[in-house]
Amino acid sequence: MSDCIFCKIIKGEIPSKKVYETEKVYAFYDIKPEAPIHVLIVPKVHISSHNELNPENVDVMKDIHLAANEIAKELGISESGYRLINNCGEAAGQTVFHLHYHLVGGTSMGSKIL
Ligand code: AMP
Ligand code: ZN
């Protein structure tokens, strides 16, 4: 997707602070962090939202979840705890339409979802 900001980040056309990378996944610090640790984990392939996951492309979710575990360990929040959040669609607050997971932690967030 030529006009997708996260595709541009993955290609290095827009700078980012890389946290982690594999063949299928790229992770970088969110530009407007909402917690002491706020990382975005994205598939390198363009998938516009969780709605667009299907039997052909869902394998990348395995890599995303394993990346989250590795990053949480590397950043020292594996034991204290963290949230892995996906916003799907406008009502959920999705603003960038390239599938991504927010990994947030480094603070006590309580038990509320909303
Ligand atoms: P969402 O609202 O779930 O679509 O999340 C999009 C996230 O992307 C927001 O938390 C933004 O702060 C973040 N974001 C947007 N542009 C950039 C960028 N150039 N570098 C890093 N994070 C970004
Ligand atoms: Zn994209």
Tell me about this structure:
With 114 residues, this protein is α+β, with helices and mostly antiparallel strands. It has a single domain, classed as HIT family, subunit A. Helices cover 19% and strands 22% of the residues. It has helices spanning 5-11, 60-74, and strands at residues 18-21, 25-29, 37-43, 82-85, 101-105. It has a 5-stranded antiparallel β-sheet with strand order 1-2-3-5-4, with helices on one face. A hairpin with a 3-residue loop joins strand 1 (18-21) and strand 2. It is globular, with a radius of gyration of 14 Å. The N and C termini lie far apart (32 Å). The mean pLDDT is 97. Bound molecules: adenosine monophosphate and zinc ion. Zinc ion binds next to helix 1.
Count of DSSP H/I helices: 2
Q: What is the count of β-strands? A: 5
Write the CATH fold name.
HIT family, subunit A
What is the 3D shape? Answer: globular
What letter string, H or E per element, gives the SSE order? HEEEHEE
Please, what is the CATH homologous superfamily?
Answer: HIT-like
Mean pLDDT: 97
Distinct ligand kinds = adenosine monophosphate, zinc ion
Low-pLDDT stretches are none
Q: DSSP strand (E) fraction?
A: 15-25%
Distance between the first and last residues' Cα: 32 Å
* Major sheet: arrangement of strands: 1-2-3-5-4
The radius of gyration over CA amounts to: 14 Å
Domain count: the total is 1
CATH hierarchy: architecture = 2-Layer Sandwich
- Describe the biggest sheet? 5 strands, antiparallel
Structural class category? alpha+beta
CATH class: Alpha Beta
Helix content: 10-25%
